[in-house]
Automatic annotation (TrEMBL):
CDD domains: cpPDZ1_DegP-like. SUPFAM superfamilies: PDZ domain-like (SSF50156), Trypsin-like serine proteases (SSF50494). The gene is htrA. InterPro entries: PDZ (IPR001478), PDZ_6 (IPR041489), PDZ_sf (IPR036034), Pept_S1C_Do (IPR011782), Peptidase_S1_PA (IPR009003), Peptidase_S1C (IPR001940). SMART domains: PDZ. This is Probable periplasmic serine endoprotease DegP-like. Substrate binds at H124, D154, G228, N229, S230. Belongs to the peptidase S1C family. The active site is at H124, D154, S230. One of its GO terms (biological process) is proteolysis. The chain crosses the membrane at residues 21-38. It comes from Candidatus Terasakiella magnetica. Its EC number is 3.4.21.107.
């Protein structure tokens, strides 16, 4: 046999290679090429923010407000900023040599519609202002009127009348949901009255709840934000507004690298309502809710702690009409998952008023599909329907147990100092020397379960007593929630 040359040997080996290896080799090379292209297009920290700042600065404005402070008899009007009130009180509540003066407040804002002269700022910047002035980058001063405000998200919308020769520059609201932790951001505003100040940093966190309102979902940033920055924009590197700078965390009053901005996606809906109606029009469901803890999830048969647990249903509200019940866990609303309790108010608020939407609830170990027609929160607030729970049976007297019961409502919560998350039925009165009294049960405590079944109304307790008597039981097992916490108590049934 003739000896093969090296080239002939290599060709022979190539012919015998497994086709799978060829496919793997090609795919690997293709993957490396894609990774190289992606890396070459990845955005890194810019060498300078100068070009971006030059483009955006003209759209950011200073807000100056004035209000009259009544100093007669050492009194201040409602709405005066806390720092001014503290200054006043430190001086014994006496204003120097005058009965009235002008209090001035400074803040920031930005133009969102140059043609219409629309400017966004914080509600607390213009709150109780008698005069509002907008100062542009070139120090041009324009009078502004308030179109609408929303204290719940701390957003206000202003309108200025354009002067001849004055050109407004606008910026756009971006998609804050695409913002990621670690992204570069730029804040522009009027800190301490020093207009046109630019700071840069990154997004430190998303979805922050700082107890500022019912729809807290703040973007946290370490870009320097100080007093006077309020109402100013937080930009991404595309020049889109992804947040409205609203609050800072600071023991000293100055920036410590923890600032909070209202996400632009929340602001969009609010601004649109303020522009069209002069007020917000939020969706309303008509329920009180609480967090689903791991223990509650386990007891209800949920695989994990998620959703919003309904603790009460407003009488005549959308939830009652949709057959949502106390004890249901709302898992999805309008096709959006409720991963945690505080997500539900925002989802409902952003839903179109009057729209019928699907709702999935967890009830007695099963998912139940319902449909609810969304109401309007502002109308419900005006009518006093918000927080008004549905009352099934207000009270019941059970001689067999020696006590009287009431349905849990706001009046009883206040009377017995019960927490918001309390559930069950309230013990209104305990008969002296009766079966309940002998077991140390007291008025103001709650019956949470009867015979290890959760109860929500006095009628349910009454039915449980009737059933126990029919089955000739001598006692009834109650789960009591009192000052000592939860405890089981077996109460004898009196004849």
């Amino acid at each position: 046999m003739n000896k093969m040359t090296r080239r002939q040997h290599a060709q022979a080996q190539a012919k015998t290679l497994n086709p799978t290896l060829w496919i793997i080799t090609v795919l690997t090379a293709f993957g490396l090429m894609i990774a190289f292209i992606a890396q070459s297009h990845a955005r890194s920290a810019p060498e300078s923010f100068a070009d971006l700042a030059e483009k955006l600065l003209p759209a950011v404005v200073n807000i100056s407000t004035t209000q009259k402070v009544d100093a007669a008899h050492g009194q201040l009007p409602q709405g005066v900023p806390d720092f001014f009130r503290e200054f006043f009180e430190r001086r014994g509540g006496q204003m120097p040599q005058q009965r009235q003066r002008q209090a001035t407040s400074l803040g920031s804002g930005f133009v969102i519609d140059a043609q219409a002269g629309l400017i966004v700022t914080n509600n607390h910047v213009i709150q109780d202002a008698e005069e509002i002035k907008v100062i542009l980058q070139d120090n041009t001063s324009l009078d502004a009127e308030l179109l609408g405000k929303d204290p719940k998200t701390d957003i206000a919308l202003l309108k200025v009348e354009k002067k001849k020769g004055v050109k407004l520059i606008e910026v756009s609201l971006g998609n804050s949901d695409k913002t990621r932790v670690g992204d570069w951001v730029v804040a522009i505003g009027n800190p301490f009255g020093l207009g046109g100040s630019v700071t840069a940093g990154i997004v430190s966190a998303r979805g922050r709840n700082i107890q500022a309102g019912p729809y807290d979902d703040f973007i946290q940033t370490d870009a320097s934000i100080n007093k006077g920055n309020s109402g100013g924009p937080l930009f991404n590197l595309n020049g889109d507004v992804i947040g409205i700078n609203t609050a800072i965390y600071s023991p000293s009053g100055g920036s410590v690298g923890i600032g909070f901005s209202v996400p632009s996606n929340i602001a969009k809906t609010v601004i649109a309502d303020l522009q069209e109606y002069g007020r917000t029009r939020r969706g309303w469901l008509g329920v009180r809710i609480q967090t689903v803890s791991d223990e509650i999830a386990e007891n209800l048969g949920l695989e994990d702690a998620r959703g919003a647990l309904v603790t009460s249903v407003a009488e005549g509200g959308p939830a009652e009409k949709a057959k949502i019940q106390k004890g249901d866990v709302i898992l999805t609303f309008n096709g959006k998952g409720v991963s945690e309790m505080r997500k539900l108010p925002r989802i409902v608020a952003e839903t179109e008023v009057g729209k019928s939407v699907p709702v999935k609830v967890w009830r007695k170990g099963k998912i139940k599909k319902l449909s609810v027609k969304v109401g309007e929160l502002e109308v419900a607030e005006k009518n006093g329907s918000v927080g008004k729970p549905k009352v099934t049976k207000t009270s019941a007297t059970l001689k067999e147990l020696g006590l009287s019961l009431g349905s849990l409502n706001d009046q009883l919560r206040e009377r017995f100092k019960l927490p918001e998350e309390a559930s069950g039925v309230v013990i209104l009165n305990v008969v002296a020397d009766g079966p309940a009294a002998q077991k140390g049960i007291r008025a103001g405590e709650l019956i949470v379960e009867v015979s290890q079944k959760e109860i929500t109304s006095p009628d349910e307790v009454k039915k449980a007593v009737k059933k126990a008597k029919k089955e000739k039981q001598k006692s009834l097992l109650l789960l009591i929630d009192g000052e000592e916490g939860l405890r089981f108590v077996a109460v004898k049934l009196a004849k």
